[in-house]
Design a protein that fits this description.
Length: 347
């Protein structure tokens, strides 16, 4: 009898708990809907005011800059706090839907979103180091162990790792964009192209003797470019992390942003970083053209070499345009800062 009474009591408690939970979910859903509407209205108002300021040619320049800065800070405050989870979410990329289906990957809490971004940064740091070490080991073994001729399996293992690397990057970047990050569309397309190149190169037959040096010239150049890419990635990661903290402190960036644009300093790092980037892009285009040349001259006849050459040239040109755009944004920002400083001194 005691057990029967206890079972009945537990059943009643579960019913009461279920009713309370249903009532709470219903009330919280109504409140969430209200917050979403308010957040959407405020976000639309900020966008409208931005457009109004941009189209008003008669506004005093000093007042324009002040109002623009205030709006930017308001937008960062809106998008960088807990309110961000109530803002309209960006559509998820096809890549995410293809692998995960119609799953909502937007985190409801800011701390979870920041953990996603920290994991992305950690992944980039790890892969940048491997990007440098993996091809360096292959080229060293080629010179001192394999008599100047790369075996097919280690190269294909590296290409499989590249496919895994870029797939992981694209997945993380699509999820970051869905959670409010400002990653440029070009970097997603760049990684799609790189994935396609890695997939195609996996079917590329790595030929050996005779005339191994000539047949593997494209592979050797690609590994040398990959080492340079690893160095550039390490420098970019360090530079971007430092600039991100500064921009957040100034209220000019959200915590979910990935830094690519304006800067107010660190000229020593810029003097080192941008020449390396332009050299890397030039060498990437050179490797692509060399692959195309080997096909046109009849040294190799595989279609994979032709496709990889075209993709490398496309990525090099896209990276160059993106870097030039970034430099132009930096130049405009510095000019704007100088104008503001001059006005302040005159006042």
């Amino acid at each position: 009898m005691e057990v029967e009474e206890e079972v009945k009591r537990i059943v009643e408690q579960v019913k009461e708990l279920h009713d309370s939970s249903t009532s709470f979910v219903s009330s919280s859903s109504d409140e969430e809907l209200s917050l979403r509407k308010r957040a959407s209205v405020v976000d639309s108002s900020i966008r409208r005011l931005h457009s109004t300021l941009a189209s008003d040619k008669h506004l005093d320049p000093k007042l324009f800059e002040k109002l623009e800065e205030d709006l930017q800070r308001a937008r960062c405050m809106l998008a960088d706090g807990d309110t961000s989870s109530f803002l309209p979410s960006k559509p998820q990329g096809r890549f995410v839907r293809m692998f995960l289906g119609p799953v909502n990957v937007r985190a409801s809490r800011k701390d979870i979103q920041l953990k996603v971004k920290e994991e992305y940064n950690s992944y980039r740091d790890r892969t940048a180091l491997l990007f440098l070490v993996f091809p360096a080991i292959l080229l060293t073994l080629r010179s001192y162990v394999w008599d100047g001729c790369l075996p097919a399996f280690p190269v294909q293992l590296y290409e499989a790792w590249l496919l895994f690397l870029y797939a992981g990057l694209v997945m993380r970047e699509n999820i970051l964009r869905a959670n409010g990050s400002d990653i440029r569309s070009w970097w997603l397309y760049h990684h799609y192209f790189a994935m396609a190149m890695a997939l195609v190169s996996l079917t590329w037959e790595i030929k050996g003797q005779p005339n191994c040096v000539q047949k593997q010239k494209g592979v050797r150049l690609f590994l040398q470019w990959a080492m340079m890419q690893g160095i550039a990635m390490l420098l970019q990661n360090r530079y971007q992390r430092q600039r991100l903290y500064t921009r957040i402190a100034l209220g000019k960036a959200k915590r979910m942003d990935v830094v690519w644009g304006e800067t107010a300093g660190v000229d020593g790092q810029l003097l080192l970083l941008f020449p390396i980037l332009f050299t890397l892009q030039g060498f990437e285009a050179y490797v692509g053209l060399q692959l195309l040349r080997t096909v046109l001259m009849g040294v190799v006849a595989e279609w994979q070499v032709l496709v990889c050459g075209i993709l490398l040239v496309v990525m090099a040109v896209g990276n160059f345009i993106n870097t030039v755009e970034t430099l132009m944004v930096k130049s405009r920002f510095k000019a704007k800062m100088k104008r503001s400083k001059s006005r302040a001194e005159l006042d």
